[in-house]
Structure formats: structure tokens, C-alpha cells
Amino acid sequence: MVIKKLTLHNFRNYEDETFSFAEGLNVLTGKNAQGKTNCAEAVYYLCTGSSLRIRHDRQLIRHGQTEASISAEAESRYGRVTLKAVIYENRRELFVNGNKLTRAVDLLGNMNAVFFSPGELRLIQDGPDERRRFLNLSISQTSREYSTALLRYQKILDQRNNLLKDRDISLVLETLPVWDEQLALYAARIIFRRRAFLRELSPLAAEAHLFLTDGAEKLSVGSVTREESEEEIGRRLLREFDDSRERDIRLGFTSVGPHRDDVRICIDGEEARGFSSQGQARTAALSLKLAELKIFEKLAGEPPILILDDVMSELDLPRRKKLLSRIKNVQCILTCTHAERVLYGADCNKIKISGGKIVP
After folding, report:
1. What is the pLDDT of residues 276-290, one digit of tens each?
2. What is the DSSP secondary structure assignment for residue 180, as one 8-state letter?
3. Angle of CA points 244, 250, 251, to nearest 5°
4. 286 vs 68: CA distance, rounded Å
5. Rg (the chain; Cα; Å)
6. 79-88 and 92-96 strand pairing
7. Interatomic CA distance for residues 294 and 168, integer angstroms
């Protein structure tokens, strides 16, 4: 999978600009706050339909404007594809090959990307929300069924939580079993797919971490759980919903389910969240992303686009060189302020950005 061209209109600090990308390493260079990350963000948005940096799409519209658009031309083993997103203040429109999508989920899988930035330290150091978000974004890119299950689970979860706040206890007790059956159905799909993903991710991340650290540290991801079919998970969840019913009514929200999951990440046997240094956390997060890249390549039959936003300045010299050697056969969009300090003569397509414009 490679992106050939990206066009931005009123997106972030860009008025009108078109980027042409090479198949290998593409370096967006320039001073801070010029628009390098905005370009990388636009590519990721077309892959996933969401941004890792903001909550509301209207924040992507250039100041003083009422709409923005992102469009791209990409090539995969299946041929050429064009993607477009038009963003308004309170809605958006998505297009694939000129056809308007009626479901946002249909954008997924047309162009895949793995995104890494210094902010990915949250994946290691912050709470369970960040690790669930990583799983959801990663799995959704290669499984529309998973993305659909997530959306339906969240909708039913919201309705169940609203019911739990109702003061008519008899109505709550009468209605909850109906919601629980539907909730367990989609929760089982989510949990089953997450477990399968983590089984693949764990050894790949461990291997990447050994490579980046010259064997000095051992990374482990997830914990051993007993094998369960999707149906067995669903039946177990129904029992858990039943057991927690009184507590949920008292609390006013659903206390069990995949929205409460976490992933245990350890370095040399110690939980990384509490014991890792900044450098260790950064390398662990990067190892997870390199593992994610391998999974995408296996599932799609070709590597995804790798986006590295201001990563090189955060790595020491040996790890920079190791990373560059690891990604030489992948299309990469890399942002940095001083390309000559991090690339060491590597062949690349260098694009200089200043004030939201490409400059010579």
C-alpha cells in the first residue's frame, strides 16, 4: 500500500496544497508549527476516519473557513483507489473512488496506516482507555465487522446505562435482561477479536523490542487467558451481567464488559506503566507499532503506510539507525525539524514545509 498524492484544502493551516509521495521514505521537514504533523494527520484521517489529536472534526477546518477537504490517490495490490473527506462544522462526507459512503465504516481498509508520535507514550504510561483505543483503531482498520460491533456495543451500552439511572427499579429489573443479551452478543465479538489480535501482537512486539534494545530488555504484552469460543465468552458475560446487576443499579453504570478491559504491558517482568522510564516507554510503544505494522502486512498481503511524527529526535543514535533499517521496505512519512541530523544519508523524498506551504 502506498499513497501517491495528497491534496489539502482549508485543512488545519493549509489553504491549498498537494503533496507527491515516493514509495520509500518521505521526509516532511521544516521548523516547528509549520504544518508537518497536520499533513501526517490528514493521511491517517483518510485511513481511519478519525484523528488521534482532536475530538471534534470541526477543529480540522482552517480558521475563518466553513469547510475543509482531504483527498488522496493510493495504490494497493488490488489497484488504484481515490479517497476523499469533506468536513463541515457539524457533519462530514466520505468518498471512495468518487462514490459517497452511507456508512463511515466502509472507509476502513481502503488505505491502512500505522501512526507513531511522541504522544504514543500514553499507550504505555496512561490508563486503560489509551490501550483500548490502540486496540480499537488497529483492529478496525482490518476488520469492518469489529468496527461495526464496537459501534453497536457502545450504542447498547449507552442505553443500558441510561436505564440503570431510572428510579423505577421494577422497570429496570424487567428490562435489563433484554439489553444484556444484546450487549453480550457484541461484547463477545469484541473480546474474541481482541484476544486473537493480542496473540499475534505479543511475540511480534517482543521481537521488535529485543531488536531495538540489542537484547537488553524483554517486552511482554497481554496475559495468558483460557481459550474460549465467541459463544462461550457471550455466555460468561451474561452470567457476569447478571451477577453485577445490583451493583450496576447502585452505581448507575455498567461495571463489566470490554469497555473496562486493559492490556498488561511489562518490561523485564515489571509493569511498564508504573516502572518504565521515558526512554523505555518510548521504545516499548514503538515496538508495539512495529508489531502492528507486521500484522497489517500479513492480513493485507502488503505493508501499510508508516507515519512517524517527530520520532527521531526522541531516540538515541543506535535506535534511530535500527529503526531506519527496519522500515526500509515500507512507505514511510516521517516528520522532523532537521532531516540531515536523523537520516544519515538515507535515500528519501524530502519535502520542506513553511507556514502551511511546500517550499523549495
Report:
1. 999 999 999 999 999
2. H
3. 85
4. 31
5. 22
6. antiparallel
7. 51
C-alpha cell at 94: 466520505
Amino acid (1-letter code) at residue 275:
F
**E-strand spans in the chain?**
2-11, 14-20, 25-29, 67-76, 79-88, 92-96, 99-100, 113-116, 219-221, 265-267, 270-271, 305-309, 332-336, 349-354, 357-359
- Contacts with 40 (C-beta within 8 Å, 6 or more apart), sequence order: 28, 115, 307, 309, 333, 335
Distance CA(254)–CA(245), nearest Å, equals 8
Collapse the DSSP code of 15 into the 3-class scheme (helix H, G, I; strand E, B; otherwise coil) and give the result.
strand
Q: Which residue has the cell 512495529?
A: 290
151-174 pLDDT, tens digit per residue, is: 999 999 999 999 999 989 999 999
Domains in the chain, ordered, with CATH?
Answer: 1-112+304-360 (3.40.50.300), 124-301 (1.20.1050.90)
Cell, residue 92: 462530514
Round to whole Å and give the CA distance between 211 and 337.
26
Q: 37 and 335 in contact (C-beta within 8 Å)?
A: yes
CA angle 312, 309, 318 (to 5 degrees): 15
Cα 136 to Cα 190: distance, rounded to the nearest angstrom: 9
Closest CA to 221 of 292, 158, 151: 292
Mean pLDDT of 222-229: 78
CA–CA distance, 312 with 335 (Å, rounded to integer): 9
Report the alpha-carbon distance of residue 24 to residue 18 in Å, rounded.
18
Distance between CA atoms of residues 167 and 315, nearest Å: 55
Grid coordinates belonging to 192: 474474541
The pTM score is 0.93
And the C-alpha cell for 212? Answer: 531495538
Q: Which three cell numbers stand for residue 196?
A: 486473537
